[in-house]
Amino acid sequence: MYPTKRPRRLRRNPSIRNLVQETKIDLSQLIYPVFINATLRKPAPISAMPGISEHTIDSLLSEIEGIFAAGLHQFLIFGSPQSKDAQATGAYDEKGIVQQAVRKIRSEFPGSVIFTDVCLCAFTDHGHCGVVRDGLIHNDASVELLTRIALSHAQAGADFVAPSDMMDGRVLRIRQTLDEHGFDNIGILSYAAKFASAFYGPFREAAHSAPQFGDRKSHQMDPANRREALREMQMDLEEGADILMIKPALAYLDLIREASNRFLVPIAAYNVSGEYSMVKAAAQKGWVDEAQIRAEILLSIRRAGANIIITYFARDLALGN
Ligand code: PBG
Fold first, then answer.
1. How confident is the model at residue 97 (pLDDT cuts 50, 70, 90)?
2. What is the reported pTM?
3. I need a labelling partner for 295 at 20 to 30 A (CA). Which of 23, 36, 130, 275 fits?
4. Which domain holds residue 308?
């Protein structure tokens, strides 16, 4: 009775291995985050994120053109305004940088799916995700501004708004406001379980959004808390989120799995800047094989249960780098 069961039969050649592969990475389920900065005259590489640049509207459109032609059609837009103030005015200005970019992408790339990041941090002079009163982030005042931002993005032509602020109740207020203005078709991808993470470090250089005092721990979650993350996701679902996101991805694969088992909406995971930059840095030193590491990381996120991955690697994958 030497083994009759031989799993190696299914690994005999590449075709058989492909046939039995349980998860795949497909461009149709990736979202590429892009940065647009109103103060630039030409694109500026982000030193902590090799291969990623901040863009002018023109350079963003040409970047998108190549990626779009290669078959990747989903984009998440981050903006940095001409000037910042305490009320994040540039974030909900109908002529703001994000709104302009969305209008252009909408008209030049029919068939694109446009997600917009909804937060105050890149638009406030203090770098916080909300309105600061007496040194604290005021929840409900922040939600009012976030709602205005989301509405202005919908008016510009976004398909999905993606609130990343972690204020309480914002998904409900955004849903109500979009509906009142006839945007019942516009979806909400909520950063539902967003942790206070050091993995966002490189991004804050890109978005110029580091807080000038304090930190984000009064709204972003404690990395130690699993049950609280499930409660955040449950609440956002009840408030009307169409897609739930977990962020970062790699250190939180357990939550991606649990969310996928529990909630009957698509689950997204954000493979954040620090996760990207660590791979790029190690690859530049020749310590790891970038393409293989990248594939393994993205597969792990899919295997954990994410339907959708937001990743800076989307560009390299689309362009075959
Ligand atoms: C803004 C925002 C952040 C990220 C997405 N939206 C940074 C933060 O909360 O400080 C992180 C993205 C990344 O690291 O790739 N609130």
1. very high
2. 0.96
3. 36
4. 26-319
**Cis peptide preceding 248, ω within 30 of 0:** yes
Question: Does residue 5 sit within a domain?
Answer: no
- Quote the ligand 1 centre to 284 CA distance (angstroms): 24
For residue range 131-157, list pLDDT tens digits in order: 999 889 999 999 999 999 999 999 999
Ligand 1: lining residues by beta carbon, under 6 Å: 117, 119, 121, 129, 164, 200, 203-204, 209, 216, 272-273
pLDDT, one tens digit per residue, over 174-196 is 999 999 999 999 999 999 999 99
Other CB atoms within a 10 A radius of the CB of residue 196 amount to 15
Whether the CB-CB separation of 98 and 77 falls below 8 Å is answered with: yes
Centroid of ligand 1 to alpha carbon of 49 (angstroms): 14
Q: Kindly report the CATH number assigned to the domain that includes residue 168.
A: 3.20.20.70
CA-CA distance, 258 to 80, in Å (whole number)? 34
